[in-house]
Design goal:
248 residues; alpha/beta; Rossmann fold; SIR2/SIRT2 'Small Domain'; 2 domains; 10 helices; 32% helix; binds nicotinamide-adenine-dinucleotide; binds zinc ion
Length: 248
């Protein structure tokens, strides 16, 4: 098998009989929409790396700087549209008995494309919440919560816990799935990076979609080296999966 033409024959057998499908997505699935990834060449903002800004310490030390970065990223989010990869994932909800999208992305593009069953592991950049009491900020409120805490983007920063229950639910889902995709993620940010390994341990067929190899690549049952906006529509093409062997 070479990089440009993956061997899809085993995959096509699996996808036709799979009933429980789960998909883990990362920043790469939004790259073709024009959202910069953290680790790609567009990952820097001014002279800062994401790891220097996306932390509670950075926010407590210099909230204005962190807000400036998020205002900049929100501006990007508002100007972009879901791409063919997001759309293929939204349509795939109807192709399997159970379909769950687990995303590390905070851009909300999956929901904008029509995905309904989405677990947001790292929050959503379009919302704010109080840094102290976690209450969501309502339209028209200022930068400070009634409790005295500052509002902040509702995203998970480095060193912070994931939203209660979200990662447990994600592990439960990949443990019972028969087909799992990991798309556009560098497989470096834990605990989300563990999910494809857990899926494999429990017997799922795991497909990786990424133009680059990742630490998970050697374990993938199928590794497709290419952009998710091109490959997800092919892999999840309803006319291929639509000929599913419902008769047996
Ligand atoms: P990452 O930046 O670490 O890795 C991105 C991966 O996407 C890389 O492996 C890269 O090879 C791959 N990629 C690049 N272009 C691609 C394409 N067209 N199709 C498929 N894959 C492509 O991102 P991560 O693994 O999601 O982890 C970084 C953290 O950064 C996450 O926790 C996330 O919350 C946050 N983040 C989110 C966004 C977003 O919401 N759009 C953007 C940047 C970072
Ligand atoms: Zn508060």
């Amino acid at each position: 098998m070479n990089d440009s033409e993956p061997d899809l024959s085993r995959y096509l057998d699996v996808v036709k009989s799979a009933t429980r499908c789960a998909v883990l997505t990362g920043a790469g699935v939004s790259a073709e929409s024009g959202m910069p990834t953290f680790r790609g060449k567009d990952g820097l903002w001014k002279e800062y790396r994401a790891e220097e800004l996306a932390t509670p310490e950075a926010f407590e030390r210099n909230p204005d700087l962190v807000w400036e970065w998020y205002d900049y990223r929100r501006g990007i989010v508002e100007g972009v549209q879901p791409n063919a990869g997001h759309e293929a994932l939204a349509q795939a909800e109807d192709l399997f008995e159970e379909f769950t999208l687990i995303t590390q992305n905070v851009d909300g593009l999956h929901q904008q494309a029509g995905s309904r069953n989405v677990i947001e592991l790292h929050g959503n950049i379009r919302r704010d919440r109080c840094h102290l009491c976690s209450r969501y900020r309502e339209e028209g409120e200022g930068r400070e919560c009634g409790c005295g805490g500052p509002f902040r983007p509702d995203v998970v920063w480095f060193g912070e816990a994931l939203p209660a229950g979200a990662i447990e639910e994600a592990f439960r889902i990949v443990s019972t799935a028969d087909l799992v995709f990991t798309a556009g993620t560098s497989s470096q940010v834990y605990p989300a990076a563990q999910l494809p390994y857990t899926a494999k341990e429990h017997g799922a067929f795991v497909v990786e979609v990424n133009p680059e190899s990742t630490p998970f690549t050697p374990l993938a049952d199928l590794s497709v080296r290419g952009p998710s906006g091109v490959w997800l529509p092919i892999l999840l093409d309803p006319s291929g999966i639509g000929s599913r062997s419902d008769s047996g």
